[in-house]
Design the sequence.
């Protein structure tokens, strides 16, 4: 009751930047409680606890967006209104990711191997992607895009079946990205300590910024696409609960959800282009 009452959906949409702090708090509490109570299974339990803290806010926000659908707004204005919720969700995700990355960096190697065990195994299976000049660039893009579409479908189904269930998949992705960022920062900080020296403090800040920027280029639009799809599934789910089938309002909700799904696919396509060709070319 304490964590879920820290901010209301209306305030979250008015001040979305506060969601970054909230996401950081949710993930931090999840990590600490998982380590304390379920240490050996903490890599998945921390994701569950982080999701559980965010579910009431996500559900109430989706409920608020569904009510906007029922007001009969024009589609362009409605998408603009949904943009407020999506901005808040993205800040929430960034806060979670930063918390996971921070804990990956500050925890001892022994604890990292336990807390991020499943995330580490997942990262090892991820294709590093094309270099931007590779012959198989398009095949890599196809593989990345189709994999992201699969996650997108999961977000829609989880939102439709469990209301705000997509937050579990997004929190999981946040933990994986946070582990990847933390590993990048930790590895390069160790290299800097050996070859640059502790006196060059500026190098440490550049490593952290470099690590965050590397994954933010394609990670933020990709997660935005998942949130858009999750919002669409959640809106339909709430409409179904209210038994709005066959009404003109339900048709309006379906149209709005279809627009959101199309928008999510467009964003996901652009995120795939960034991941396969732009990010490797820069880094």
Sequence:
């Amino acid at each position: 009751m304490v964590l879920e009452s820290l901010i209301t959906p209306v305030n979250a949409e008015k001040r979305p930047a506060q969601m970054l702090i909230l996401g950081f708090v949710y993930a931090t509490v999840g990590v600490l409680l998982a380590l304390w109570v379920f240490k050996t299974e903490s890599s998945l339990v921390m994701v569950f606890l982080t999701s559980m803290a965010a579910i009431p806010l996500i559900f109430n926000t989706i409920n608020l967006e569904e009510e906007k659908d029922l007001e009969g707004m024009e589609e362009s204005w409605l998408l603009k209104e949904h943009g407020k919720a999506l901005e808040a969700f993205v800040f929430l995700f960034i806060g979670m990711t930063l918390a996971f990355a921070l804990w990956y960096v500050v925890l001892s190697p022994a604890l990292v191997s336990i807390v991020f065990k499943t995330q580490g195994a997942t990262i090892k299976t991820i294709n590093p992607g094309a270099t931007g000049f590779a012959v198989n660039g398009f095949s890599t893009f196809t593989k990345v895009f189709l994999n992201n579409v699969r996650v997108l479908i999961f977000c829609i189904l989880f939102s439709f079946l469990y209301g705000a269930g997509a937050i579990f998949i997004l929190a999981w992705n946040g933990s994986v990205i946070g582990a990847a960022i933390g590993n990048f920062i930790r590895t390069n900080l160790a290299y800097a300590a050996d070859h640059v020296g502790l006196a060059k403090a500026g190098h440490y800040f550049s490593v952290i910024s470099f690590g965050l920027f590397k994954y933010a280029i394609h990670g933020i639009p990709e997660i935005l696409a998942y949130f858009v799809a999750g919002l669409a599934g959640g809106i339909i789910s709430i409409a179904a609960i209210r038994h709005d089938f066959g009404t003109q309002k339900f048709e309006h909700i379906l149209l709005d959800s279809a627009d959101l799904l199309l928008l999510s696919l467009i964003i996901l396509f652009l995120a795939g282009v960034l991941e396969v060709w732009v990010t490797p070319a820069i880094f």
